[in-house]
Specification:
This protein is mainly alpha-helical. Helices cover 71% and strands 3% of the residues. It is built from 13 helices and four strands.
């Protein structure tokens, strides 16, 4: 059996997450990626450059980011295995742990559900605003609950399945390469004029790296929710993202809810299609159901990770 570094990383994340005290003192590693991306964007994404030059600059940004991140992670992995011998795998697990988000994702969504259960809509809007990019000021109870459930489903892929997948496939360089690309996509991988050319490489690389994990996340949600397969097959392609629709459609089908639909960003309403064919009226009760499905999907992911490493 290979060293269970992936299971150890999952266990540490499930036990402590990324503690608030640690975050206040040193931040989070993805903050380093964000600062580098922001600095390169300020230098290279100038409005007086052609679209072609800005796209090339975006490709260079992603390339440089990946070289720095994977090179550092590769060195740390090999140094850990050399210095700590039989316990090197545990050091690798500790170095991988911050890239996982099982506990923090659960906590953020649980906070939204608790506020809704107490009928405290202002607190619920504040809590959901921390995990979604849409406008939240005018959301009613259903809108808040749907936003939290959608974020839970999508972030199950981005924050749990995909990082673990790349950890299993490529070790420490894989998990941190994914987090670097995912951070770049969240910062610059947008369709607005400022970002369209410069962020193209970040968005497309993120799409490729999520291709398998997103589909795996959808399957795990359907298995944990004991249903949702029809909606998964039918509605996964309705999302603007080639990947985010898979876990979201799976969650909509498993819960028998309608998710997505019209949503406002920066005061502009976007007429997005509905995903699922159930009721659009969601509540704190539905958040509880979604969290139970999420925990079941995480448990199955642990089993898969253990089986994968045992087979090596």
């Amino acid at each position: 059996m290979a060293e269970p570094f992936a299971l150890a990383a999952l266990a540490v994340d499930a036990a402590v997450g990324w503690p608030a005290g640690l975050y206040r003192r040193i931040g989070h590693p993805v903050g380093l990626f964000a600062r580098l991306i922001d600095a390169l964007e300020a230098m290279w994404n100038r409005h007086d450059r052609s679209q072609g030059m800005r796209r090339f600059a975006g490709i260079a940004t992603v390339t440089l980011l990946l070289i720095l991140v994977t090179g550092t992670a590769w060195a740390l992995q090999h140094i850990s295995m050399a210095l700590f011998d039989d316990w090197g795998w545990l050091v690798v697990a500790l170095l991988a742990w911050p890239a996982l988000a099982q506990r923090s994702l659960f906590g953020h969504v649980r906070e939204v559900g608790d506020a809704l259960a107490e009928q405290d809509l202002p607190a619920a809007r504040t809590a959901v605003g921390a995990i979604v990019g849409r406008d939240t000021a005018s959301l009613d109870e259903s809108g808040i609950a749907r936003a939290a459930i959608e974020s839970l489903a999508e972030s199950f892929c981005d924050g749990v399945v995909a990082p673990l997948f790349w950890l299993l496939v490529l070790g420490l360089p894989g998990i941190w390469a994914y987090k670097a690309v995912n951070t770049a996509d969240s910062l610059i991988g947008h369709r607005e004029e400022r970002w369209r050319a410069f962020g193209w490489a970040a968005a497309r690389t993120d799409d490729v790296m999520n291709l398998i994990p997103a589909r795996l996340a959808g399957v795990l949600i359907c298995l944990a929710g004991r249903g949702g397969w029809l909606v998964l097959r039918r509605d996964a392609g309705k999302h603007a993202s080639p990947n985010a629709g898979w876990p979201e459609a799976a969650m909509a089908g498993a819960l028998r809810l309608r998710l997505a639909g019209p949503v406002a960003y920066d005061g502009i309403m976007h007429d997005k299609p509905w995903i699922g064919d159930g009721s659009p009226h969601a509540s704190a009760f539905d958040i509880d159901r979604a969290l139970r499905i999420y925990l079941g999907a995480c448990a199955m992911l642990w089993l898969m990770a253990g089986g994968f490493q045992w087979a090596l």
